[in-house]
C-alpha cells in the first residue's frame, strides 16, 4: 500500500485524535506549496529520474510541464 493511501485511510478513522489531525492537515493544505507537494505525491509527479547528467537542466527527469 502506498504511503498516501495509508495516510488517507488513517485520516478517515473515527476518534478525537484523528479529528485534531484532520484539522491540522487542513490548515497545512491552505498553504499553496504544501498543497502542490501533496498533489504531486498523490499523482506520482514527485519522482525525479536520474538522467545521468552531472548538471541537468531544471526540468530534466521531471514530467513535461503543461504548455501555455
Concise structural overview:
With 68 residues, the protein is mainly α. It has a domain at 10-43.
Task: Provide an overview of this structure.
The chain has 3 helices and no strands. It has a domain of 34 residues. The chain is 50% helix and 0% strand. By secondary structure, the chain is an all-alpha fold. The longest helix is centred in the N-terminal third of the chain and has 13 residues.
User: Helical stretch count?
Assistant: 3
Low-confidence stretches: none
Structural category is mainly alpha
User: Please, what is the average pLDDT?
Assistant: 79
> CA-to-CA gap between the ends?
35 Å
The helix fraction, in percent, is 40-55%
How would you spell out the order of helices and strands? Answer: HHH
Shape: elongated
Number of strands: 0
How much beta, percentage-wise?
under 5%
Radius of gyration: 16 Å
Major sheet: size, sense and barrel closure? none
Question: Topology, please?
Answer:
Blueprint: H1 3-11, H2 16-28, H3 32-43
Keywords:
single chain, 68 residues, mainly alpha, elongated
